Amino acid sequence: MDEKYTVKTSKMLSRILRHDPGSVGVSLDAAGWVEVDALLAALARHGRPLGRAQLDHVVATNNKRRFAYSEDGRSIRASQGHTVEVDLGLPAVTPPDVLFHGTAERSLRYILAEGLRPMSRQDVHLSADTGTAVTVGSRHGRPVVLEVDAAAMARAGYEFRVSANGVWLTDAVPVQYLRRTS
């Protein structure tokens, strides 16, 4: 499987497993899981055939580790980023003192006025390092990295969770916990 096809397939799976499972006629359970066999059959019915070995390759090689298999390997879900309602069942955890959020410079004015909100997603996504935040921010223009005082947020009662691929999740980040680093 070549890199271009792998990326294209990963993006298709992200759209289906995060945003629009009905586009291929599957449903996610309450925790975001869909049976692998049902997904592969639905993809084939919609002219997008994908074999289990190809799916395994996409899951294993995705640099963002966007997907996870259930313990028995029979189901798959997106690790985070859903716009459809799911409960990933992630426990609350103590965050590191500082987390980071990468965004495009054009969004900075709104963020510094209103804080970070999940927008169409279920959670605000935060990174544990500035490098990842820069990469995330670069997707939509000139990147800006914001430092999040996660320790102060946790002391104030805000809850944090971490997804299977290391993305930190929280409901919102009020302005007083943000500081521009770049």
UniProtKB/TrEMBL annotation:
The keyword NAD applies. Pfam families: PTS_2-RNA. InterPro entries: Ptrans_KptA/Tpt1, RNA_2'-PTrans_C, RNA_2'-PTrans_KptA, RNA_2'-PTrans_N. GO terms for molecular function: NAD+ poly-ADP-ribosyltransferase activity; tRNA 2'-phosphotransferase activity. GO terms for biological process: tRNA splicing, via endonucleolytic cleavage and ligation. It is an enzyme of class 2 (transferase). Its EC number is 2.7.1.-. SUPFAM superfamilies: ADP-ribosylation (SSF56399). Keywords: NAD, Transferase. PANTHER family: PUTATIVE PHOSPHOTRANSFERASE (PTHR12684), TRNA 2'-PHOSPHOTRANSFERASE 1 (PTHR12684:SF2). Removes the 2'-phosphate from RNA via an intermediate in which the phosphate is ADP-ribosylated by NAD followed by a presumed transesterification to release the RNA and generate ADP-ribose 1''-2''-cyclic phosphate (APPR>P). May function as an ADP-ribosylase. Belongs to the KptA/TPT1 family. NCBIfam families: PRK00819.1-4. This is Probable RNA 2'-phosphotransferase.
